[in-house]
């Protein structure tokens, strides 16, 4: 019902794609730990820009229950990394230049530390192998993580209920 009310109240909103020749992929990844009250599964959300244009976005419930907010964020980073690699291959298919490394913005320093630190330790031994995909892409130089404050985390729109002021601010940053 809230979504329908929002859509009815914002008929003039839409995506704007400026004319640009920037082929920098920039991503924002976020998770809402234990968002589902029934299953306790977290939500993954991301938004990806090509230059200043929003080209991909997603919200999806994670397949497994995360044991911490850092794990939920790390799983969201993995999903975002997969989409980034697909988009990079698409750009290559069109013979368009891709500027590396791709920037992945995350607001959870613990998740960034897990991604950047290849040392096996107690906190990460339970993570599935597929989650370490992000770590591999960091080591390859394809990806670079960037810390972003929660206030500037654009992917919060995909995962959390926000105040009207914050919602409007982040929506405008998406180009809506």
TrEMBL record:
The entry's protein name is Reverse transcriptase Ty1/copia-type domain-containing protein
What is the originating organism of this protein? Opuntia streptacantha
What's the superkingdom here? Eukaryota
Entry's InterPro entries? DNA/RNA_pol_sf
């Amino acid at each position: 019902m809230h979504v329908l009310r929002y859509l009815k109240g914002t008929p003039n909103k839409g995506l704007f794609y400026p004319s640009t020749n920037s082929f920098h992929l920039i991503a924002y990844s976020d998770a809402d730990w234990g968002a589902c009250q029934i299953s306790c599964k977290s939500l993954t959300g991301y938004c990806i820009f090509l230059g200043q244009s929003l080209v991909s976005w997603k919200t999806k419930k994670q397949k497994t229950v995360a044991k911490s907010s850092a794990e939920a964020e790390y799983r969201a980073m993995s999903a975002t990394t997969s989409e980034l690699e697909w988009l990079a291959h698409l750009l290559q298919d069109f013979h368009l230049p891709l500027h590396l490394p791709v920037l992945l913005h995350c607001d959870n320093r613990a998740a960034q530390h897990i991604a950047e630190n290849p040392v096996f330790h107690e906190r990460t031994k339970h993570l599935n192998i597929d989650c370490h995909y992000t770590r591999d892409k960091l080591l390859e130089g394809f990806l670079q993580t960037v810390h972003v404050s929660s206030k500037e985390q654009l992917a919060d729109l995909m995962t959390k209920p926000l105040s009207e002021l914050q919602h409007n601010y982040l929506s405008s940053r998406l180009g809506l």
